[in-house]
Amino acid sequence: MEPIIITAILKPKENMEAQLLAELNKVQEASRAEAGCINYVLHQSIEDDTFVLHETWKDKDALESHVGSLHYQEYRTNTADLVLKREVFKLKTL
User: Alpha-carbon torsion 64, 70, 13, 44, what sign?
Assistant: First the structure.
């Protein structure tokens, strides 16, 4: 199986940037500790408050394990009211 790359773009609701960043930092730390995580890097736009996550997972099983993890489920619950727009791209290297 080939690695799966995730690019997630998150736009916080107004005045929710700090709260979203705190949640993103928590999930980033826990995700980096997962066995199937090759790379997990959080970025923020220099033009606005948009956050971008670049993740690389060993394979589909590693990604599925991540999505099913307690810390990921908590992150999704905790950010449900903080995010105005979320786009997630599952990619492969060409």
Answer: negative
